[in-house]
């Protein structure tokens, strides 16, 4: 009665609820999998496996099995993800469009939490399940994209659309996309569609952060489309993805040069004659797909300057014509004509003419394609290979072999030739370095037995001269081979062929660098801020560190050169004492591994292992001494560095000044600092006294830190002798008279070396870099 009183208006309001109630079971993942809302992940997985086996399209021939299997997969995807499952339990939707339009979905579902309104009632094609199903056959998944689409992009470009649910712009571009996708797919362009809601991982991998997005994929490289979505722009975008040198424009002036390059490039050459002024996109796509096998040229027959070319080959200017040229450029090896050139026609025509009549084996891939491995008796293919050389001396033998190949072309025979000097391992394995073949050509009939290089073969007993007798002998062997496969009595294993046409390393490196620069340039001007944030963050961080280091170093240098004010002396002394206390604590905590200091002499025998080839992060602390000061300085050195022997990255050595003075003086030339080496001379030899100097040598990074002997009497204290000391440590030394080397005791030369070692471990010492370590003579 109440329903009757409501009238037509009430029916209209209740009709969406009735339709929603009918459609809800199809959209409820719990009902699809037949599990309860409190089911565990193990129960959900078990139910999914059972239903997936039951409704898999390969096993279930029911017409609705595929749709049912898709529903099961989507339901499991929602319930196996805790976030999606929570969204469905809360809002009645899994939030598949999160990041794109989830806010709009939640507003719609929050209208009343107790009801669900199916948008199909209002004819709004927001949900991908209700949309045009033309995109379904193009849907991509992450594993499918990585394992199949990316490798296939080296044969044809792909145009990929990123879409999602509740995307108004996606609906707007669908008619244009559908038209262009059908048109380009017929030309040989791969089409893909990525649903950002279901394939977030793939969308993120592609760098798509908004929908709709359109991108191109070629040679594994992604390029985004940034223009208006119209047919002309999309076609031009795909054409721009292709390399610019795929097809060469051919006229009367350059056709002979183009066709004569077959020997250099080791490829047949293809000419397309057409009355279109620009190269058709279909022909460019074909040239990209077959670029490893064929070279392509285009002749615009309506252009002045192509009359001789059209006349020589008797071209019908009103019908597109394809011509294949191989070893002979005076006449084509094959011709195809059609008013409407279709992709299938061109593919069939080119796939039958991918190789020259007697191609030169220049790499392993070509050898494997020309001479495939025997899979069965019916698929037997024999290769007849001419092993010859370069130059006019071998020209007659090659021409005779080519003539024989043209006259005896069969599906079970392939002819090829190889240069002995470019593939010496191949030639030696077949000819056994026999004297009768030296400096001559030879013919071998072979059959590949497996991919590991094993072959069965037979070599003609005499060298190949190209005479009629040689032709009869080879023809007789091939006839016998059809009935007696055992004629190939010899077996061997061939190594892989050298790649003769591979570009040099510098050229590959140059092109890789160029591609990287172009990618960065494109990203800089076309990527959004979200994509650019990691790069900008890295750039500004590097600049901040660089300028911060420069500023800190500048202030540090200026403070070192200034004398400390008298008012700060007490504070500085207090800090020094504090540092001494903390250092003693750290030294006590650094427990030496041994009860003694291991100090080795640095000689030319252990020079490489102890310095030049020292492991990264390790340093060798070297004491400079003479024969007369050796005992006293080593004892003092051991006392000063004993607390640092617990560090595994430090090694201790001493260097004899009497033996290696030149080596030391060479190193000290690089120590150009504000505190120059003092002019102190030995009484007897009138040479500078370097005893007591200590060098911390980093062999991996090629730098050293320098400790100069302590001078108790000079103004400025140790600052003058070793720039690595803080001036505040030596204020008490001021005012004292300078001491000569004779009055300076040996035990004071290494005074405060332990403080210097502490700063060495802190990394606060000045470093002197050298280009390379000199030889220790």
TrEMBL record:
Location, primary (coarse class): endoplasmic reticulum
Residues in the signal sequence: 1-23
Ranges of residues in domain Thioredoxin: 117-243
GO biological process, one term: regulation of autophagosome size
Membrane topology term: Single-pass type IV membrane protein
A GO cellular component entry from the record: endoplasmic reticulum membrane
Keyword Transmembrane helix appears in the UniProt entry: yes
Superkingdom to which the source organism belongs: Eukaryota
Sections of the chain in a coiled coil: none
Basic and acidic residues bias: start-end ranges: 559-580
Region (Disordered): 558-589
The keyword Glycoprotein appears for this protein: yes
The protein's role, per its UniProt record: Plays an important role in regulating the size of autophagosomes during the formation process.
Protein name (database record): DnaJ homolog subfamily C member 16
Organism: Gallus gallus (Chicken)
Source taxonomy: Eukaryota, Metazoa, Chordata, Craniata, Vertebrata
């Amino acid at each position: 009665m109440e329903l009757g009183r409501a009238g037509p208006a009430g029916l209209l309001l209740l009709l969406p609820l009735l339709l929603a109630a009918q459609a809800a079971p199809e959209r409820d993942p719990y009902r699809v999998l037949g599990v309860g809302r409190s089911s565990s992940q193990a129960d959900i997985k078990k139910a999914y496996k059972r239903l997936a086996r039951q409704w898999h399209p390969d096993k279930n021939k029911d017409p609705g099995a595929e749709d049912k299997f898709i529903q099961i997969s989507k339901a499991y995807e929602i319930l196996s993800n805790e976030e999606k499952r929570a969204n469905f339990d809360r809002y009645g939707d899994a939030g598949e469009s999160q990041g794109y339009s989830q806010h709009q979905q939640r507003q719609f579902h929050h209208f009343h939490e107790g009801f669900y309104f199916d948008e199909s009632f209002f004819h709004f094609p927001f949900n991908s399940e209700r949309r045009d199903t033309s995109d379904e056959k193009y849907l991509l998944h992450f594993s499918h994209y990585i394992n199949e689409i990316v490798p296939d992009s080296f044969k044809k470009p792909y145009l990929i659309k990123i879409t999602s649910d509740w995307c108004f712009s996606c609906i707007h571009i669908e008619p244009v996309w559908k038209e262009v996708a059908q048109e380009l797919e017929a030309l040989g362009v791969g089409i893909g569609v990525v649903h950002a809601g279901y394939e977030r991982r793939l969308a993120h991998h592609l760098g798509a952060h908004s929908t709709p997005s359109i991108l191109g994929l070629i040679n594994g490289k992604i390029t985004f489309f940034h223009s208006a979505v119209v047919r002309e722009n999309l076609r031009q975008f795909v054409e721009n993805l292709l390399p610019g040198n795929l097809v060469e424009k051919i006229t009367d002036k350059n056709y002979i040069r183009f066709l004569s390059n077959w020997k250099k490039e080791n490829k047949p050459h293809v000419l397309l004659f057409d009355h279109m002024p620009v190269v058709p996109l279909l022909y460019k796509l074909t040239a990209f797909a077959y670029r490893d096998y064929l070279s392509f040229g285009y002749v615009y027959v309506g252009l002045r300057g192509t009359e001789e070319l059209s006349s020589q080959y008797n071209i019908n200017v009103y019908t597109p014509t394809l011509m294949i040229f191989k070893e002979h450029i005076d006449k084509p090896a094959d011709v195809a004509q059609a008013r409407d050139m279709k992709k299938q026609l061109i593919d069939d025509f080119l796939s039958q003419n991918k190789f020259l009549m007697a191609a030169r084996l220049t790499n392993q891939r070509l050898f494997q394609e020309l001479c495939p491995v025997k899979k069965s008796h019916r698929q037997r293919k024999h290769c007849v290979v001419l092993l010859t050389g370069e130059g006019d001396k071998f020209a007659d033998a090659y021409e005779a072999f080519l003539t024989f190949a043209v006259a005896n072309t069969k599906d079970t025979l392939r002819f090829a030739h190889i240069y002995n000097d470019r593939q010496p391992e191949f030639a030696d394995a077949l000819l056994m370095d026999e004297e009768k073949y030296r400096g001559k050509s030879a013919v071998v009939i072979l059959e590949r037995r497996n991919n590991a290089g094993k072959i069965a073969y037979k070599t003609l007993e005499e060298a190949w001269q190209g005479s009629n007798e040689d032709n009869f002998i080879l023809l007789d062997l091939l006839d016998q081979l059809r009935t007696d496969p055992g004629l190939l009595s010899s077996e061997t294993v061939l190594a892989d062929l050298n790649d003769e046409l591979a570009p040099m390393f510098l050229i590959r490196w140059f092109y890789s660098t160029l591609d990287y620069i172009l990618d960065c340039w494109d990203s800089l001007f076309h990527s959004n801020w979200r994509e650019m944030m990691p790069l900008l963050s890295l750039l500004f961080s590097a600049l901040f560190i660089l300028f911060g280091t420069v500023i800190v170093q500048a202030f540090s240098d200026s403070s070192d050169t200034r004398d400390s004010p008298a008012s700060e002396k007490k504070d500085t002394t207090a800090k020094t004492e504090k540092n001494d206390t903390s250092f003693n604590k750290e030294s006590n905590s650094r427990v030496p591994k041994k009860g003694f200091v291991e100090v080795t002499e640095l000689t030319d025998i252990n020079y490489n292992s102890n310095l030049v080839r020292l492991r990264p992060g390790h340093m060798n602390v070297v004491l400079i001494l003479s024969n007369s000061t050796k005992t006293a300085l080593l004892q003092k050195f051991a006392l000063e560095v004993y607390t640092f022997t617990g560090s595994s990255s430090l090694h201790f050595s001493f260097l004899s000044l009497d033996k290696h003075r030149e080596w030391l003086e060479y190193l000290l030339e690089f120590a150009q600092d504000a505190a120059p080496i003092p002019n102190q001379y030995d009484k007897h030899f009138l040479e500078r006294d370097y005893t007591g100097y200590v060098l911390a040598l980093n062999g991996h990074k090629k730098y050293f830190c320098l400790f100069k002997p302590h001078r108790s009497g000079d103004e400025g204290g140790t600052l003058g002798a070793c720039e690595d000391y803080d001036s505040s440590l030596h204020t008490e030394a001021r005012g004292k008279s300078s001491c000569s080397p004779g009055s300076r005791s040996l035990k004071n030369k290494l005074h405060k070396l332990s403080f210097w070692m502490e700063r060495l471990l802190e990394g606060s010492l000045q470093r002197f870099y050298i280009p390379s370590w000199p030889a220790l003579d």
